[in-house]
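User: Reviewer 2 asked us to show a designed sequence for the structure in our supplementary figure. I'm pasting the structure tokens here. Could you produce the per-position amino acids so we can include them in the response letter?
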């Protein structure tokens, strides 16, 4: 009697797990997110900090100063189109490279991280009466598998929070009296 109950209970648990995995496999894995922050300085003050990957180390989470476990290597070109960096950390390794650079307007880059499909991101600078609206957006697709279907519901919010933190550090950096200077090469 107890063995039959135990086997039925196992069958119910296995069925529930199978349904959860099936639903996770069917959930959308495409993501798109945008976040923005208003800066009190013009685009020409901000642009050098987003167009130069060495300068990212002062404000972006792609920085050993902000993420001490990150081993970062800059490519031979550090600024503008074809600028690149690679990194390794406990979660995996990756590469980021700039694919478009329009002075004082936008920087578009791509990221390959671990076994994730490629992500495309843009940091756009729009002049406003008060300074600049900086918009950081990303789009991509999570890998196949039931876990990523469920994770896809949270991934954009995790990334958005990371972008917001980075933009707030950049805002603080460029709005300081000496912060508007060009980043070092």
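Assistant: Here is a per-position design you can include in the supplement:
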């Amino acid at each position: 009697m107890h063995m039959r109950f135990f086997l039925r209970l196992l069958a119910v648990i296995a069925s529930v797990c199978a349904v959860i995995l099936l639903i996770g496999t069917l959930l959308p894995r495409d993501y798109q997110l945008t976040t923005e922050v208003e800066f009190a300085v013009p685009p020409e003050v901000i642009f050098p900090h987003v167009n130069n990957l060495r300068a990212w180390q002062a404000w972006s989470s792609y920085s050993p100063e902000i993420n001490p476990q990150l081993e970062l290597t800059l490519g031979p070109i550090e600024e503008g189109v074809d600028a690149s960096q690679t990194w390794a950390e406990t979660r995996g390794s990756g590469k980021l490279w700039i694919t478009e650079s329009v002075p004082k307007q936008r920087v578009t880059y791509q990221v390959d991280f671990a076994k994730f499909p490629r992500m495309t991101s843009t940091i756009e600078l729009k002049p406003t009466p008060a300074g600049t609206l900086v918009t950081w957006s990303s789009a991509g697709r999570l890998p196949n598998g039931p876990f990523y279907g469920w994770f896809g519901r949270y991934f954009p919010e995790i990334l958005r929070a990371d972008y917001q933190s980075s933009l707030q550090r950049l805002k603080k950096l460029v709005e300081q009296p000496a912060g508007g200077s060009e980043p070092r090469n």
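For the response letter, you might also mention the following. The chain has a mean pLDDT of 86. The chain has five helices and seven strands.
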